[in-house]
Amino acid sequence: MARCIARIRNVISGLRHSESNIPPQGISVNMGEVDYGMEDKRKMSFYNPLDPVPKYEFYAKDTWSGRIKSTRPSLDILRKPPDPDDLPPPPEEDGRPKVKLVRFGWVLGVLIRCMLNIWGVIMYLRLPWITSQAGIILTYVIIFMSVTITTITATSVSAISTNGKVFSGGTYFMISRSLGPELGAPIGLLFAFANALACSLNTVGFAETVRDVLKDNSAQMVDDVNDVRIIGTITVILLLCITFAGMAWEAKAQILFFIALLLSLINYFVGTFIPPNIEKQALGVFGYRAEIFMENLLPSFRGNDGSFFRMFSIFFPSATGILSGVNICGDLKDPSGGIPKGTLLAIFWTTLSYLLISVTVAASVVRDASGSLNDSLALNSSIHCTGLGCKLGWNFDQCEQNRTCSFGLANHFQILATVSGSGHLITIGIFAATLSSALGFLVSAPKIFQCLCKDNIYPYIGFFGKGYGENNEPLRGYVLMFIIALAFILIGDLNTIAPLISNFFLCSYGLINFSCFHASVTKSPGWRPQYRYFSPWTSLFAAFLSFILMFLFTWWAALITFAIVLCLLGYVSYKKPYVNWGTSYQAGFYNMALSFSMSLNGVEDHVKNYRPQCLVLTGPPNVRPALVDFVGTFTKNISLMICGNIIMEDEKSSFPQHSTDMLVDWLNQRKVRSFYTSFAADSLKEGAHNLMQASGLGKLRPNTLVLGYKTNWQECKPESLQDYVDTISNAFDSSYGVAVLRMMDGLDVMDDLQSAGVSSAVDNLAFDADEVPQCEKDETDQNSDISDDGSNELVRSVFQTKQGRKSIDIYWISDDGGLTLLVPYLLTRRNRWKKSKLRVFILGGRETMEEDRKDMKMLLKRFRLEIEDIVVITDVDKPPLAKNLQRYEKSIAPFRLSEEQAGGDVQELKRLSPWKVSNKDLEAIKPKVESTVRLNEIIKKNSIHTALVVISLPVPDINCPSSLYMAWLDALSYGVHCPVLLIRGNQENVMTFYCQ
C-alpha cells in the first residue's frame, strides 16, 4: 500500500511544482528565473494521500515569481483514486535552460523613471514663463491643483496595483480589469496615443534648446520652425534606436540622464546666490530682491496665451509622468510594493523642485529686460524712468511700453540657463530632462499598446503587438509610436502640443480615479488592496476635477476626446468581446440587481406592470432552438426568461458536469437573454413542479409555463403522456399561465443534428421548408435581437427571419385575462415582426355578428391595441367533415377501454390507468370535440399564409383523461403549416384600460 501511495504521489507531482518562498514585499531580487527542471517537496494533508495543502501555484496565472502554474486534484480524483497501474509515469526533466528576465527595483524602475518623466521640458523652458504670466500666487495654485490631481491619482493607482498582480500594460491593464473592456480599451488606446504625443512634446523641447544654441553660435540651418522639425526628427530616430537595443540599455541611459539632471538643478540653485554681473543684469537677472518678488507676486497675462487656464493646460503635462512606473509594471520586481512608494516619492520631490524654481526665479528676475548694456542708468544717469528697473539701476521702460523686450522672465524661455552658475550645465540638464522623458514615453506607449493588442479587443491591431526577445519587446509597436510622435514633431510648436496632451492625460486620470471609486463603493469581495491610504470620495473628486479641467483647458479638444472615447466604447459594446476580468461593473450590476430585487418585495403587483415571466421547459436549450427563440423574442429586455432542463435520474450519468456552462455559452452566443437552470427529478411532473416552486427570486418569479407540444403522445409510454398532461394541470393549479408551442415537424432537432452532424445542420428542421421561402430564410435582420453569427452550432429557426407583412392570427376563444392577446402584441414590437398585422378571431352568432365585432373593436381600442381586422366566426357549430372526425376517433382509439374492461370496475381501471378513455368520457366531451375539429377546419382555411396562429388553450378538467386532452389539443392544431401557439392565462387580468 505504501508503494502504491508513493507511485500516486509521483504522478500527482506532474501537477505541482517547487515550494519556494514568495519574495516579501519591498525586497528586491536580482533576476527572476524560471527553472523548468526544478524538483519540489510535496506536502499533503492528512485527510487523503492525494489531497495537497494550500499552495501558491494553485492560484497563480503566470510564471512571474519563478514558479510554474500547477493544478490541484479534482474531486473525482479525491473521491475515486485511480488505479496505480493505470497512472502515467512521472514527468522527466526536459533539460531546458533557465530563462533570465530583466527586472527593475522600485528606485530605478519607479522613482527615478517617474522623476525623469515629470522633470521634463516644461520645467526648464516654460515654468519661469508661466510664473511671469500667472504670478507666484496663481502659479502655486496651478502647481497645487496639478499635484492634487496627480497625488490622488497616484493613491488610486497604488490601490488598484496592490489589489492583485498587475501585468504589462500599465494604465490600460488597470482600467480595463477594473471597469471592463468597454472603457478600458478606449482609454488604453488614447493613453498610448497620449504617451506618443508626450514623446513628441519633449523632443520638440529638446529641439528648441538645440536650435537656440545654434542661433547663439550663428549656425541656424533654415528658420526657427524648420530647424525644430529637422532636429526633432533626427532625435526621435536616435531614441528609437535606443529602444531597439532593449530595456537594459534604456535603463542605463536613464541613469545617466538622471545624474545630469540633478547636476543641472544644483547648478541652478547655486547660481541664484551668485551676485549677477552687468551682462546678467541687462538680461533682467538681479539676484534675490524683495521688490522683484512683490512685483512678480500677482499675474500679468499677455498675448494670445494670456489666461489662467491656458497657463494651466501648458503646465499640466509636466505632472503627467506619474504613471511611468506603472506603464512598465510587467518589468518590475515587485509592482505592488514599488509603485506606491516610488510614485508618491517622485511626486513629492518634483513638486518641491517646481515650487522652489518658481519662487526663486520670480524673486530674482524681472519680467521685462532689453538685454542692452546701454540701458544702464550708471552709463546714462540723465535718463528719466518709472519702471521697476529704475530702482535696480536700469531703464527698460521703452521696450516695456513697445512690447519689444527680448529678455526677462516673460520673454526669454532659456532664463534658467541665464540665472544658473553655468549655462552649459542647464543646457545639459534640458537635454537630459527632455531626452529621458521622450525616451520614457516612447517605451511606455508600445508597452500599453502591446497589452491592448494581446487582448484582441479591436481588429487589425494585433500585428503591432508581437513581442521579440526574452523581454517580449514590441518592436513593431515602437515603430508605430515613432510614426505618431514624428507626425506631431512636425508641428514644431510646444505651446500647441501641450494642451492636446493635457486632455488625453486628464481623461486617463479621470478614468483611473473613477475605477478606484467604483471598485470601492461596489464593495466586491475581491477588492482587497494592500495600499489603504486612499479614499473613494477623493478619487471621485479627482475624477470630476479632471473632466471639468479638460473643457476649461481646450473645450474643442475635450469634445474630440470624448467623441473618440464614445465611438470606441460603442464599438466594444456592440462587439461584446468574450472576456471576463472580474470588473467592478460586474460587482455593481450585482449590487443593483440585489437592491432592486429587494425593493420589489415592497411593491404590490399591478396589472399595468404585468410581464409574462416565462419558465420554458426546453431541456438542453440547443436541442429546441425554435422554442428558445420564440420565447426570447417577446421577453428580451422586458421580462424574465428561465430555460429549465429536467434531468431524469437515468440521464444523470450521461449528462456532462460542464454542460451548464456550455449551454449558457450557447444562449449568450445566440443573444438570448435568459437564465438557465437544471433540476434532477424522477419525472417531468415532479421536475416541473419543483422548478415552478423554486425558480426565481422574490418578485422575479415565473408566472407562465412554456413547453413544446408532445408530438409522440400516441407512441410514447402512457406514463409519459400522463406526466405531460399532469404538468399542464399542475401549472394551472399553481396559478401559472400556460403556453404550448407546436410546429409541424416538431421542436427537437437532436435527431437531425446527430444524423447530419452538427457542422452540416444549418437550418432548423423544426419548421416546414415550404412555408418559408428560401430567400426569406436567408434574409437576416441586422437589428434583430437574436443573431446568427455563422456558427454551424447556432441552428437557425423560423423566428430568426423577418416575417414581412404576414399576419398573426389570434383565435381568442376563451377569455383568459388577456395573455392570449398580450404575447402576440409583444411579438409585433420586435423588428422581425413589426410589419406583421394582428387579426383577432372571436366566436359569435350570425344575428349578433356586427354587434360582437363592434364590442371587440371597442375593447381592443380601450386596450390601446391598433387592431382593425376582427373576424367573427359564426359557423363553428356546423358539423365537421367526416374524415376529420374519423381522424380524431382514430387517434383516441388506442386509449379506449374495451367492452370487457368496461364491464368491470371502470373507476378502478381508470385509477390504475388514468389515460384510459371510457365511453362516458367520450359522450361528455363529444360536443366540444366536434366544435374543436370544426374550428381546426376554419383555422386551416383562414390562416394559410399567416406567420403564427395563436389559439386559446383549453383547460383540462380534473377528471379528463390525459389521452383525451391530448387528442383535443391535437384536433385543435392539426395540419396548420405555420407555428401554432396554444396559450392560456391564469384567469387574472394582464391587460387593462384603466389609468390606475
List keywords for this structure.
51% helix, ten-stranded mixed sheet, alpha/beta, 996 residues, disordered N terminus
Give the structure's gist in a few sentences.
By secondary structure, the protein is α/β, with parallel strands linked by helices. Helix content is about 50%, strand content about 5%.
Q: What do you see in this structure?
A:
The strands form two sheets. A ten-stranded mixed beta sheet has the order 5-4-3-6-7-12-11-8-9-10, sandwiched between helices. Strands 1-2 form a two-stranded antiparallel ribbon. With 996 residues, it is α/β, with parallel strands linked by helices.
Describe the SSE topology.
Layout: H1 2-12, E1 32-34, H2 75-79, E2 99-101, H3 106-118, H4 121-125, H5 127-161, H6 170-179, H7 181-216, H8 224-244, H9 247-273, H10 278-282, H11 290-295, H12 308-315, H13 324-327, H14 335-362, H15 388-391, H16 397-402, H17 415-419, H18 423-455, H19 475-489, H20 494-521, H21 536-553, H22 555-575, H23 584-600, E3 614-617, H24 625-635, E4 641-648, H25 659-669, E5 675-681, H26 684-694, E6 704-708, H27 718-733, E7 737-742, H28 750-756, H29 774-777, E8 807-811, H30 819-827, E9 837-843, H31 849-862, E10 869-873, H32 882-892, H33 899-903, H34 906-912, H35 919-942, E11 948-952, H36 962-973, E12 980-984
Parallel strand pairs: 3-4, 3-6, 4-5, 6-7, 8-9, 8-11, 9-10, 11-12
Antiparallel strand pairs: 1-2, 7-12
